[in-house]
Amino acid sequence: MIGLTGAVGSEIGRRYRANFDVAHLDLDPLLAVVADGMGDSEGSALAGRTTVETFVEGVGSARGKIGPETLREAVAAAQDQVAELGRHDVGLAGCTLTALLEGEDSALWVVQMGDSRVYRFRDDLLELLTVDHTMAWLGVAHGLYALDSPQARNARYNLTRYVGHAARPEPDVLSIVPAPADVYLLCSDGVAEQVPYPRIREILRMQIDPTAMVERMLAAADVAGGQDNATAIVLKIPF
Q: Which of 60, 117, 191, 200 matches a 20 to 30 Å C-alpha distance to 217?
């Protein structure tokens, strides 16, 4: 995509001994991926790295033919690899997978599995383009409990879909059309759960480059407590 700019960054935070988030960014053609390992075991770290490597390889081998089936096949390949990891004594092997990539005719594809997120800032409106695959999201969406309730907090970490799930669930796959001046944010829940919506919007509407936006986003997660690994990819579509 001509003129596209972007940046990626990740921080350990203050809670974990290591960073179990994994990110990948290519700008030409666009391929942005964020994975967030479940827990802090060896299996968590292996699942994140394996998922990103397998997905990137699967998409790369199909370059020029990107579509729903290609993307689902790439996720299925990652499921196979992570399932194999789970057969060994490495702890829980599972992770989220969220991707934004360039297809044909300048279309963008979103791939979602888990609770990392894709946001879009357009015309001064910040929108969440993905759905969290958690029991908390389902409970709040269907009125079972309030967003700030103890039930929602407890259900926040009960993922219904992730790479490594025994049922091998499929990802959400969404096609979107970018517009001039769009800004996109891919992030792990270490950003989404700690940085309030108004602060995310404030950062993405700044007239600064993606690297500075990523730095501010990660700093905001640290100010909010740094209770999780935090990863952010920011992409800016040219005017």
A: 60
